[in-house]
Amino acid sequence: FVGYIAMFRGVFTRAHPERIGWRESYLITMAALAASRVFAAGGAGGLVLQAWALRQAGMARRVVADKTISFLALTYAPYAVAVIVCGFGLRLGIFAGNAPLSLTVVPAAAAVLALVRRPGDRLDGEIVTHPALVTAAEALRGRVPPDATLIVPERHIAFLVAWYTGADVAIRPERVPPGRRYRLLPLHFIGAGSPLDRALIAARAEPSLIPPLGLHPSHPDGMVLVAEPTWDWIVARLPAADRARCRAWPTI
Fold first, then answer.
1. Nearest-CA neighbor of 180 among 213, 144, 155?
2. DSSP 102
3. Residues 6+ apart with CB under 8 A from 87
4. Per-residue confidence (pLDDT) for residue 46, from 0 to 100
């Protein structure tokens, strides 16, 4: 169990070093192991409890998912190695015992393929995007409070931001409490020279507001992070038609 706890800490502390220490690693792993024994769900009970505990520690959903996959891969990799060693060892006579082909070479070969297989060159399921958008997404790191949710009107940008930052994202704002909302506005949504564009510039000059933050490397409003109180101030000062559009929050 000591090795299990140490591996847990090694995987998860990189994502949240100030919240996942030795004590937290011990408590979470022991609770997850207990849950996997108590709930007859093929071990899923432990994973659910572990994910819940990590979310309570302030870790974003995407980060929890990514780190859990890494943790499981490291946990079960020794079993694959054991299948390879024992399978080929029995078949080649290094170890004593019965060595039918179907129970030695076949599973050992499958384990080898699982360990050495590399993804192909196909782009199925991948998002190919402009490097400037990647730069803007990476610039968000450390600028969004851990309990905030980014409201993003364009799905491909939402996926991009979730991947590079691990932040919680949503397409629509209605289910997100106002106190947790941060709007992420791409230039396509803003419109160059539009009333919204001018209102963003005005908001940067208003000392009572959290200023809109430009993230795009080549355009001040190419990608803008806006706190919800600032967004409300901006929308209230738009012409009626633009105000109605922003409140409707069109998405693509």
1. 144
2. G
3. 103, 104, 105, 106, 107, 108, 109, 111
4. 77
- Distance, CA of 131 to CA of 216 (rounded, Å): 10
pTM of the model: 0.55
- Helices 44-56, 22-38: axis angle to 10 degrees equals 150
Burial class (CB in 10 A: 0-12, 13-18, 19+), 194: middle
Mean pLDDT by 10 residues, the chain (252 residues): 84 75 87 76 71 79 79 85 89 84 85 70 57 85 87 89 85 93 93 93 94 90 94 96 94 88
Could you tell me if 224 and 182 are in contact, meaning their C-beta atoms sit under 8 angstroms apart? no
Rounded distance, CA 87 to CA 102, Å? 10
E strands present in 68-205: 149-151, 168-170, 181-186
Across the strands, what pairs with 151?
Answer: 170, 183
